[in-house]
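Re: that backbone. Tokens:
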């Protein structure tokens, strides 16, 4: 990480309640008024915490995006890998959860370095399943890394704010259609592309048997959604993504638990939490759109406070993703100049 340019806007740690520490999203384009890059988290002081969700699925929280782990007789599937500096701690926790099973698959929800930073270490720690079956192992081949092709494209080049990733960190398998699927540990795990949402390479990961959705940064409950406009994100794509999550989830019933949702950052959620968040984001989008129709400028829209009733819960005046930046990203991606 030390070779990254100071133009990277590093995530800052946010403490979420007593039990869950996580980092806010990184990799967002730093604009002209940006401050000095904040210091990296002190990785030595970060503890990995594991939460059993349901079925075969666990969530690990440390520094960076939440990590989802599916473990069973076939081995381990992991969604996202936080920062490279977290890899040893995460791998130790995964070994504990899985009883030492090899990592077969690494799925990436999107390109940001707090979600793909550990890819290379995870790949080397893992073993691939040849031809989608457990028939044959090749010890040195490493885990497969699966992502949308836009993630691979962006990781393999210097794009202005992020240097190219080492080749061992790149996805080994990509897809470009609407979805792809992996069958492992007795369940289908579906990767669903959501175009132009948080970035242009976001996927939702749906564990169909365990009934869990890992959302990447399309859904985070730590603040307003981060829209990385430099990497193809848009407000309408975020809202479409939130609605897609709701297509996949079923609510809790009196007898049975419903679908559980693992956000990119923040605490474990259920359908009701996502409904509330989707409604909030949609209302703000509609307000900004109405103001734009009246001919208001960005400055006038910001002054009118389209988010004000939600700022107590989701707003920020400092840090890398402020309410101001969110409103501006909504405005710009709705076509405002
Ligand atoms: Zn992100």
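Recovered sequence:
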């Amino acid at each position: 990480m030390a070779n990254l340019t100071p133009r990277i806007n590093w995530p800052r740690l946010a403490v979420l309640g007593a039990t869950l520490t996580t980092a806010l999203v990184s990799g967002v384009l730093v604009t002209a008024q940006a401050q000095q890059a904040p210091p990296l988290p002190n990785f030595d002081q970060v503890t990995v915490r594991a939460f059993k969700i349901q079925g075969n699925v666990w969530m690990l929280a440390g520094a960076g995006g939440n990590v989802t782990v599916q473990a069973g007789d076939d081995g381990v599937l992991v969604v996202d890998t936080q920062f490279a500096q977290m890899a040893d701690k995460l791998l130790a926790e995964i070994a504990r959860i899985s009883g030492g099973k090899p990592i077969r698959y690494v799925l990436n929800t999107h390109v940001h370095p707090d979600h793909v930073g550990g890819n290379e270490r995870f790949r080397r720690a893992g073993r691939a399943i040849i031809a989608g079956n457990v028939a044959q192992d090749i010890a040195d081949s490493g885990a497969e890394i699966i992502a949308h092709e836009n993630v691979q494209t962006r990781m393999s080049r210097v794009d202005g704010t992020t240097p190219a990733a080492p080749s061992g960190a790149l996805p080994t398998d990509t897809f470009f259609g609407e979805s792809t699927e992996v069958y492992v540990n007795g369940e289908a795990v579906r990767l669903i592309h959501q175009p132009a949402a948080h970035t242009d390479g976001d996927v939702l990961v749906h564990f169909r048997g365990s009934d869990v959705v890992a959302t990447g940064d399309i859904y985070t409950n730590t603040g307003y959604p981060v829209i990385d406009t430099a990497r193809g994100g848009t407000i309408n794509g975020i809202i479409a993504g939130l609605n897609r999550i709701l297509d996949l989830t079923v609510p809790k019933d009196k007898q049975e638990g419903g679908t559980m949702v693992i956000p990119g950052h923040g605490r474990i959620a259920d359908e009701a939490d996502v409904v509330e968040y989707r409604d909030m984001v949609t209302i703000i989008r509609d307000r900004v759109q109405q103001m734009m129709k009246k001919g208001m400028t960005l400055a006038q829209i910001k002054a009118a406070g389209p988010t004000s009733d939600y700022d107590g819960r989701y707003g920020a005046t400092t840090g890398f993703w402020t309410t101001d930046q969110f409103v501006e990203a909504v405005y710009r991606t709705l076509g405002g100049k």
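The domain at 13-278 is CATH 3.60.15.10 (Metallo-beta-lactamase; Chain A). The chain has one domain: 13-278.
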